[in-house]
Amino acid sequence: MLQLFPPIKPYTTHTLPVSGGHTLHIEECGRHDGIPVVFLHGGPGAGCEPYHRQFFDPRVYRIVLFDQRGCGRSQPHAGLQENTTTALVADIESIRESLGIDKWLVFGGSWGSTLALVYAQTYPERVHGLILRGIFLCRNRDIHWFYQDGASSILPDYWQDYVDLIPEDERSNMVAAYSRRLTGDDEVAGMAAAKAWSVWEGRASTLLPSASVIDHFANPLTALSLARIECHYFMNDSFLGENQVLKQAWRLHGIPGVIVHGRYDVVCPLEQAWLLHDAWPQASLEIIPNAGHSATEPGIVDALLRATRNFAQRLR
Fold this sequence. Notes:
The protein is of the alpha/beta class. The chain is built from twelve helices and eight strands.
């Protein structure tokens, strides 16, 4: 089973001002003359982590990572102004142009898979291929499953900690209830809501409990941007048309892809990957039998590394 490449540091970093008063943090790793690949992190609002660089052979790839609007080292932190799916897609294209890259491989997990698919549907001529993990279609039913009713039946103990923060008379719409606290004037209540929202996701992300994953989601910096930005997106239907990703799947014709999904993914159930594969048969689907949602689980790591290795052979 393949393991992550050794830790590496960027050979250069950039800041890119974009609309709405946002400034993006961008880093490049590996070879400047390597195969370009862009990494799209999850959330929306999670930000990049150092281990994300390690899915790619630095001797082969020019690895581009960036923190999306409002998260990680991009500024302003947890900013919601002009933070939309359309804006993020435009940001990806602005980064490509600013770095002088003609065409690149796109790698994304969870919300990053959503963003990768919408970007590829918008700019198919700029995409060598897609490597996607933990498919998130962002339909209303997908949000309802994890934040209202569905995953609650599988993880009732963790769910109780998530709902305890919200009075019973507000629980008919948990996303809206959390949104009010996350965008309100009470900073203490907002931070408590951010941590409860984020820890619920972290606890649900792995098949077996992972203290390191939960600790990351509980970090106040991560929790605040993740919760505020996710609520902002989900209150606005993720700034997508209903079932947009699947309805526009025909635009992916001619783009090769790899879909990696854990069989026991509670955050984004396997149905979403299955439907995407049915709509985009040129992509291969690998179901990992002993994994949930997280990119850190061994079987998912192995599948993603095989995908980056195979694309490197193809694109060289």
